[in-house]
Amino acid sequence: MPDNSSINLINIPDASPYLNTLLKQIYDEFYVSDEKVDEIIKGFHDEMRAGLDEHNVLLPMIPSYVTGRPTGKESGSYLALDLGGTNLRVCLVTLNGDSTFDMIQQKFTISQEAKDFTLFDWIAQCVDIFLEENKISYDDFTKPTPCAFTFSFPIDQTGIARGNLIMWNKGFSVPNAVGRDIVTLTQNAFTRKHVNVKIVAIINDTIGSLMASAYTNPNCYMGIIFGTGTNACYWEKVSNIKKWSTGNLDRNPDEMIVNMEWGAFDNKLQVLPFTPHDNKLNRKSQNHGLQVFEKMISGMYLGEVIRNAILWLVDRRVLFGGRSSEILNNAYSLDTAYVSVIVADDSPNLDEVRMFIESTLSIPGTTFTDRAVVKNVCKLIGGRAKRLSAAAMCAVLLWRPEVLDNPITIGVDGSMYQFYPKFAESLKVEAIRVLGKEKADNLNIILSKDGSGVGAAVVAMTVSKPAH
Ligand code: ADP
Ligand code: MG
């Protein structure tokens, strides 16, 4: 079982009985049993059903208006914009019609002024620079380049190219945008700057992952992000989306991608194994009480939960001789990228762990026991993240178990998936336990690299014709 063998992690040589008792307590709090996984899967199904039936419930289950499955034969050049929290990527993707693509892209760091005031004009300016530098631009008289916008802020979507901003987060505060259509605001900025581009679709990064993977693997059923945050989308039968009316579509599709916003799962904390260390993080966070599932597993938060547990041991004087450091005392000073390095350190003296504690955290003179404790706490809490991630994936697979009668693909993106030791393996192990070997063998989990760009281009293609 993934990390259930972690009971071994609490027997550390030379640890005092008191330290062992405290480690056992951490183990008990973070351990996720098979029964717990099954309970979480059931909890997911209850919330998924409620989210598909009604608006304004815990799991948003947002209809994406993406209804066409790609075949890999799509061709043409499309522009894709990917606005994350830190960068804007402008890409020109050329789909070659044989499941391959070429892409040129340019990255622009979002300035504070853009975040506070000028975002849409700034985006138009970046697109203008990109078109000009890559000699793609042409005058107002030629056909505009179709463009899909991957926009990673919450929107209330009312059409494939229409969505009103619900709220800003990640430090953005552009005035007069909340409640308004993001596509109109961006398109108006393009018009003001004579940028000859037409936004034909607005999507999020999970849909980008799904559609990018579907271009090379048309049987792709699901897109998942395990990065700064976590979220997923999948193909749902339209007849199951009871809260949605087909009013805004000119045809009646059988299926549509649903953006789950699964980071919001169990915000009422009825099934998740939430610990006091999670609670400490949650209480101090800007979005207290929200995105609690995300806070237990994603890159932005995992290191912070671990930092809380490490400080809890320091405060009981069983770690680092009871000493902390200014760095370790700072919230979010333990980046999840370090957790991956620590967990992967199999050297006899735990040299990487030593380097991290002594150099990065500035806590000198560690003992082997100190290092073993830090590594094992990382493994226990990281192991929980992997197990909960797998539970969520399995819940979505079991929601439509018939899809596993044939081979299917899941496109996944994000640094946690890419770099955390054995993350991908743990998804597969859990799938075998929950679904059985035969069905799990039909599962092809792939890294959806460049998902936002390629996936957006594929969506743009399915709703328009190329300019050239
Ligand atoms: P984004 O979510 O913005 O698209 P990423 O998928 O790269 O970006 O995720 C960034 C998050 O992943 C950050 O929270 C960072 O702490 C975490 N991260 C970066 N490198 C690693 C790593 N090697 N192992 C685990 N987490 C990582
Ligand atoms: Mg990303």
TrEMBL record:
InterPro entries: ATPase_NBD, Hexokinase, Hexokinase_C, Hexokinase_N
Domain Hexokinase N-terminal: 23-215
GO-annotated molecular function: ATP binding; D-glucose binding; fructokinase activity; glucokinase activity
CDD domains assigned: ASKHA_NBD_HK_fungi
Keyword set includes S-adenosyl-L-methionine: no
Pfam families: Hexokinase_1, Hexokinase_2
Chain ranges of the Hexokinase C-terminal domain: 222-461
Enzymatic class: transferase
Record-level GO cellular component terms: cytosol; mitochondrion
Entry keyword set: ATP-binding, Glycolysis, Kinase, Nucleotide-binding, Transferase
The EC number(s) this enzyme carries: 2.7.1.-
Record GO biological process: glucose metabolic process; glycolytic process; intracellular glucose homeostasis
Keyword Transferase: yes
Family: Belongs to the hexokinase family.
Name of the molecule in the record: Phosphotransferase
Source organism: Smittium simulii
Source lineage: Eukaryota, Fungi, Fungi incertae sedis, Zoopagomycota, Kickxellomycotina
